[in-house]
């Protein structure tokens, strides 16, 4: 096994076994984990406590039954899966669960949490251009900080926060470099491997993830760049999984050269900037800088243009929208983007993603036809 294969295997194992990653961390440090609900949260604050921030993004192929009691069938499948798992006690080992509530379903779920872990809820302001929005979010973060300190029995110092901010900024920067390297080496970093590198960062300390990804980048860049004979695509949406779906991309020679996925590149898009202001203010300011996201209000609707710019930068052949079933914010963006793509002659395809689905033959047929048309 080569060094690249060994690193990818390690990251894939972590991505596939979050419970083991949490248990290993607790055995190593004596501290547990704090659940991080989609999509954005001040993870640096959790990191500064010494607890492990653990992403909660549902599950794949699990039949929904208990969740139907608490959520309507038209709630998005991520939230359905999260509700099903928490009804089964899957999250009861978490020290707390951190919720931002940018959509109606997340608001509903935060109020109907059935697990034993305490829930910490905060709101991202949507009129983001105002200085008042920054001040509001600072107050929200102060409440989050106080509740974390209460539930975890720790004190979060500014020095610890600054250290965590630096660690997270470095991880985001390294991951942005990884995106470019993966685009140059699709024979080495295929769709499944690329996703695993992103997903593993949800279940491990960012400094350890950074170390592994730096090593991976160095090993890959030492190889010669080979011409890609397939097609290159940009993918956008909330998430693009499971691996069975990504295997279809590999089968038809579709290299993912960049993405606008909430679970992946949106998490690394914006850094917390340096400045004289306190850490909470600068963390709040980062939300004001977020762009190209369906849950971060943009009255100018610049997401379609952003995706077309990515196509130009990467030489991509098409955009594929992974539409999360029953995700209202994503559904509101899609018609605007589709019109812009059609007006500019941009090849594009929308596929539906549903975490409860176990058969992908329909998606496979559509992707095969799309590749043939390109």
From TrEMBL:
Keywords: Iron, Iron-sulfur, Metal-binding. GO terms for molecular function: hydro-lyase activity; iron-sulfur cluster binding; metal ion binding. Pfam families: HGD-D. InterPro entries: FldB/FldC_alpha/beta. Its cofactor is [4Fe-4S] cluster. Gene3D superfamilies: 1.20.1270.370, 3.40.50.11890, 3.40.50.11900. Belongs to the FldB/FldC dehydratase alpha/beta subunit family. This is Phenyllactate dehydratase. It comes from Anaerotignum lactatifermentans.
């Amino acid at each position: 096994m080569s060094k690249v294969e060994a690193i990818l295997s390690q990251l894939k194992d972590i991505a596939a076994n979050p419970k083991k990653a949490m248990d290993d961390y607790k055995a190593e440090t004596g501290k547990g984990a704090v659940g991080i609900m989609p999509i954005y949260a001040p993870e640096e604050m959790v990191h500064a406590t010494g607890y492990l921030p653990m992403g909660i993004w549902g599950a794949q192929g699990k039949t929904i039954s208990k969740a139907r009691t608490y959520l309507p069938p038209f709630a998005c499948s991520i939230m359905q899966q999260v509700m099903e798992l928490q009804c089964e006690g899957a999250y009861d080992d978490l020290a707390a669960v951190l919720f931002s509530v940018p959509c109606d379903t997340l608001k509903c779920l935060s109020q109907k949490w059935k697990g034993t872990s305490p829930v910490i809820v905060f709101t991202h302001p949507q009129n983001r251009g105002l200085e008042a929005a920054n001040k509001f979010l600072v107050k929200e973060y102060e409440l989050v900080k106080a509740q974390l300190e209460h539930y975890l029995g720790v004190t979060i110092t500014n020095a610890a926060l600054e250290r965590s901010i630096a660690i997270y900024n470095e991880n985001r920067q390294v991951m942005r470099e990884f995106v470019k390297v993966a685009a140059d080496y699709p024979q080495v970093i295929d769709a499944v491997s690329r996703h695993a590198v992103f997903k593993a960062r949800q279940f491990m300390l960012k400094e350890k993830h950074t170390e592994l990804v730096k090593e991976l980048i160095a090993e890959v860049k030492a190889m010669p760049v080979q011409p890609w004979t397939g097609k290159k695509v940009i993918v956008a949406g909330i998430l693009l999984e499971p691996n069975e779906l990504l295997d279809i991309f590999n089968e038809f020679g579709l290299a993912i050269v960049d993405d606008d996925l909430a679970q992946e590149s949106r998490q690394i898009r914006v850094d917390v900037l340096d400045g004289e202001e306190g850490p909470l203010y600068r963390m709040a300011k980062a939300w004001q800088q977020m762009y190209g996201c369906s849950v971060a209000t943009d009255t100018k609707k610049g997401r379609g243009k952003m995706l077309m710019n990515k196509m130009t930068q990467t030489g991509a052949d098409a955009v594929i929208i992974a539409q999360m079933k029953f995700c209202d914010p994503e559904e509101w963006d899609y018609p605007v983007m589709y019109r812009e793509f059609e007006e500019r002659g941009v090849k594009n395809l929308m596929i539906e993603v549903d975490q409860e689905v176990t058969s992908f033959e329909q998606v496979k047929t559509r992707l095969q036809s799309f590749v043939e048309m390109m």
